[in-house]
Design goal:
- The N and C termini lie far apart (64 Å).
- Helix content is 0%, strand content 55%.
- The protein is an all-beta fold.
- Strands 1, 2, 3, 4, 5, 6, 7, 8, 9, 10, 11, 12, 13 and 15 form a 14-stranded parallel β-sheet that branches.
Length: 171
């Protein structure tokens, strides 16, 4: 396990099957492709800190402790694109949200009508809101609850949080 953080500011190909990263930060306000040809293992946090569109490609997915993208994306549906058919696992915490309702964070599969698999382990925490999710299957983990989503399209095991009903009675 590498104890220091790795910072990336552009597209990259990673073949690190025998390496456990502590933390990885991916920054940038453009579109970047991260090619994974072996499972990326991050014991700490995989953190996206730019307003860019981050596309995962290659033959493998990732297993991370915490996945975080919690800033205002450049445009609606900009965010994280996962390679269809690949599996991405989050074991500790999932934090995905746009900081404003007028610009939704996109969580999408790379191929329309072909799902990518994003699984949140049982017992992991989640803060998810102001997102649009398309072609993401999360049936391999706990249900992901979304506060004020844009669109949930072909989003298996994703549910919208609703306002609780209020009952008022007078005596």
């Amino acid at each position: 396990t590498l104890s220091s953080a790795l910072g990336l500011g552009g597209g990259i190909t990673m073949n690190t099957s025998s390496v456990n990263w502590n933390n990885i930060t991916i920054a940038g306000n453009n579109s970047y492709t991260i090619t994974l040809n072996s499972t990326l293992n991050v014991t700490g946090t995989l953190n996206f800190t730019g307003t860019g569109n981050y596309t995962f490609s290659g033959t493998s997915g990732f297993t991370v402790g915490t996945l975080t993208y919690s800033i205002l994306p450049a445009t609606t549906n900009t965010g994280i694109n996962l390679k269809s058919g690949n599996t991405y696992n989050v074991t500790t915490a999932l934090t995905l949200y746009s900081t404003t309702r007028s610009t939704y964070l996109g969580i999408n599969s790379s191929t329309t009508n072909n799902a990518a698999y994003l699984n949140l382990s049982p017992g992991a925490s989640q803060i998810v809101g102001n997102v649009q999710v398309t072609d993401i299957n999360s049936s391999g983990g706990q249900t992901i609850f979304v506060w004020q989503p844009g669109t949930l399209s072909n989003a298996t095991n994703w549910k919208q949080l609703v306002y609780p009903a209020t009952l008022v009675t007078t005596f």
